[in-house]
Structures are given as C-alpha cells and as structure tokens.
C-alpha cells in the first residue's frame, strides 16, 4: 500500500549533537520521481518532536544516483532521527552512504538562505516568524521557519494521488466483519448522463452492492426503498456523484473501525470530463454549526438503515435534503457526537452533478432553527449565509480587558470598542495588574475611560502580570450572563460585531464563540485555531486577504473548532465558572487555547463566527507574550501544553489529516497524510 512509508534508517543522536543544527545527507539510487524522502525527530519515549523534514535531491542527470540532504535543528530532547522513503517504488531504492554532520548557526543560516534566497528575504521582511523577545530566539525562529519552508515538497494533487490513493484487493481483509452497504441514488431526471455515470460506478464496485434510484416518476416513498434494503448502512448519492471501485470496501472497513457510527461523511474531489481529478475537499469532523451552511451536505454519506427509517423525509429527489434532514433531526435530540468523518476520497463529483436549490436548503435550515439553536436566519446562497434574528432575550455581557493602560494605543482601542458597538447591555472592566499603584499616565487614561458610565478600571495588585488571573479575578466579582475576554489592541470593524457573537451563544450547546480578527491591512490574523499547526497550535488562514473565502469557504462561514483566541472570546458565564476559568499556570500564552479545549472536553461547542470582525493590532500594546520577565515561562508553558493536549495536537478533529501541519501551510496537502494503514486501520484523524 503506497500510503505506508518505509523506514530506511534510524540515527541515534548523541549528547554533543543535541541543541545544534545538523546536515543529514544520503546517497541513493533514483527509483521514481514520485519517491519522497523525509526525516522525523523523536524523544526518548519515541514520540515525534516535529513535523516532516523533506530531503531535497541534487541529481546529476547522466548518473543514476542522487545525494539527498536536509538541514534541521536538533532539539535537546531528541534522541533519534528517523529517515523514511515514501512512494510506489520506495522499496526498490538502493541506499548508499549516510552522513550526519553538526553545523554552526552561521553554517546552517548560509545553507538555508542560499537554498531559498527569495523565501528568506520575503520572510525576513515580513517578520511573521517573530515570536520571541530575544535576538537569539528570533534568529532561531527565523531559521526554523525557513528550514521547514525550504523543504516543503512542491508536489501537486496528481502526485498526491499517485502516492496515496491507489488501492487493490490486497489492501483489504479477506475475513472482514465490516458492515454491509447498499445505495440510494437521487436524481432530478429519470435518465441523464450524470445518473448513468453514478450507476456505472456502483456496478463497478468490488463488493457488488445493491442500489435503487429515486427519481421524479417514482411512486414509492423513501421509506419503502429503505425497507426493501437489508444492508446495515445506506449510502446516499446524487446523480453525478461517482464512486471509485474500492469505495464500498474501504467505507465498510472504516465504519467497522469507527465502531459503527450512526452516520459518516467522506472526503471528495471533482473529476473533469476527461477523467482528471482535481479540487479535493478534505472535510472536518461533521459539526452542527458548519452543517447549517450546507458545505458538508455533498458527497457520499453513509447512514445507518435504522436511522434513515426513523429520520428521513417522506419523499424528495435531492440527496442533500435527505442528508441534512437526517442530521438536523438527530441534532435536535440533544445528542452531539453521532456523526464521523472518513478521511479518504470516496466520491468524485462530475461537473454535471445535480445540486439541490439553495432556496430549498435555506427553507430546511430555517425550519430547524425555529426550534432552537443560534439566533440566525439563512440566506439562499451557496454556501448558505446568514442574517441575525432578533434574540429571545439580551443577556448582559461583562467585558474584561486586561491592560497596562500606559500605551496611547490601548486607550484609543478601548474607546473604539465603546463607541463602535451597538449591543445595548455591556459593561467594560479594565484590569490593570501590577505590584504598585497606578502611575500618572495610567491615572489619566483611567479617568478618560471612566467618563463612560459602563466602564470600570480596577487595579489588581500582584507581583507579576498574569493574564489568566486578571480575567478570573474580574469574572468572580461581576454578574453578566456572558463574559467577553477582550484584548486592549482590537478595534471593531462593524458595530454589530458583539450582537453576532451573542447570536451564536444563544445556542445552549455552545460554550464559546470567537471572532474573525484582521490585521490593519485587512489580512486575516485569526480565523480560528488549529491544534498541531506549527508544532503546537496556530491560527488558521493567517495572512489570507479578507475578501477571499479560504479553503471550502472556511474563512468566512461559521463552524465549530477546537479553539479560538481570547483576543475576542465570548463565553457563557456558567461554563466559565464550571471549569474554573483560565488556568493561571498559563500567565501569558496558551491560556485561551487550554480553556477552549477544556470547554470542548466538557461537551460544549467552540464556535468561530466570522460575521463578527475586528481589527487586531497584534502585540502593539502588551508586547510579545514572552518579553522581559515573561520569558521564564515560555519553555514550561509549551511543555505543559504538549503533554496535556498531545492527542489533540496530533489529531485535531476539525483539521483533516490529509492536510499539512507546517507553519502557514495548513491547507496544503500532507506528504504523507497523518493516517497509517495496516491490517487494523490505525488513524490519527479524529
């Protein structure tokens, strides 16, 4: 199976080589253009310490060998470097000499800059790698980003398919206990090329599944068709959605591995008239908020037969209507974790694939939202967009803004929040945490703010500033039903931003709602948080122009995520108090991510609501998270996060395992995907 990498060598890292840069070089025969060599680093527990470092080849055209090499930084905790080969002919490569040389920082810098001079210049000018307060830390981070970026494989989707999407019967167990699958194909026409293509793909399935066509002239109810089928699962397809021959076998194996979920969605791509596959749609785990947009309602769905009998509509010619109806009905019962994602491409979408009218989908979502959930109303676009609905009630919001209250910029930002917000019931509590009384500048700024009747400035005496403690202390002595954690360096773009956040928090299953934050130049600063990105966690869509929708529209549609930033985070007070607020062991960074993960673990949703937009003047008032005395916390906080949330960092359910976790490459293809396959299907995608 070409998805499985071949371990070709493991190098022990001696003490003198740790904490230094190194060059690893391997001489090997050229087996195939699509063969990839990469290195990973591991600690004494064999846990990986980083992403993949790809070895670049320097071939001599008339000779049958290449020298592959990579320059990387070896952290202190690394005890082993492993080399892997990946590709259809990886096992045919003849390996030659392997060398491992330590490098000085100057040598590593020269190599990386000479290898990718344009990237180096662009990164240095942008400074978007900057996260440390020390010159040494800044240089190390710059080189680390460059080391990753210089070696990211520039392969296209065709190469990815060659490596990771070729299947044979030998890839599946001959004694499988997997469930059986039959199919319902919905069509707007009695006969069409799109319908014929779908039926031909079903006939070509290795397992020979049963299927039926639901078309306009069909007299039978949908329930009748389902009753006639005896399979465990019913696959829902629209005319024009075609399956690869292995789809049924692979879907059945995955349903068995996932312990028979009530339903499962699959990844898909598009296919041209000449058979070229393109535009893959690698999906997150299905979630209620994103489902409301309709973005997850296309492609093959696998639904338990009993669930379909219980929840399906009486009749329709649209697969999307069936899928959404079943999902939303189950969601209304209060059950949250009934749907799963199968992270393999099992549907190809033709250009003539039929699609349900957006007006019909909007009517379906409107009917669902009348029964509860976020206070929004759908608009018939693709994907569906939303307008605010009048709230059932307006909860008072306590806004907490930790601040030094010294910088002129912080004063103007807080004033912009006060003057640029149309929510009627909010109070702002500015928390200044320091060991001494307010100085003259702070007193002047405090006096200017307290001219507003809904502003309070509180001095919280403490030896050191602790962002978590400041928020917790103010939250404990205030009474708003909702708590808004807000930085002192954000400015509203639209006056209704806080009403949008409150609309989504009206859903009782939601614990946190986060906003979309833009840099002053209108590029995205925060579009949600992806766990595992950049080694631990990072913002999605960073630097994407505000007008662009992002991958699968995910920069501009509301959805559930693992975490959002506390630069603007609306929390239900009950949830905040139930979980003890922010963890004060994170005085500077990661407190918001840790809190959001705990909220999700407690069973609540964490929602990213891009309709709420603010400008974020990042680090302009508070400064770097680890400047000055805060530098002492950096290593400790990173290690605590890595240990506490190791599983979520390895497998964020809202980030498909077929995507990269390399800095600023979160929507690029992963080489290889974070899915390894053997006889028992080991997954890291949920």
UniProtKB/TrEMBL annotation:
SUPFAM superfamilies the UniProt entry points to: Nucleotide-diphospho-sugar transferases
Membrane-spanning intervals of the chain: none
Pfam family, one: Glyco_tranf_2_3
Gene3D superfamilies, alphabetized: Spore Coat Polysaccharide Biosynthesis Protein SpsA, Chain A
Entry-linked PANTHER family: RHAMNOSYLTRANSFERASE WBBL (PTHR43179:SF7)
The protein's name: Glycosyltransferase
Organism: Belnapia arida
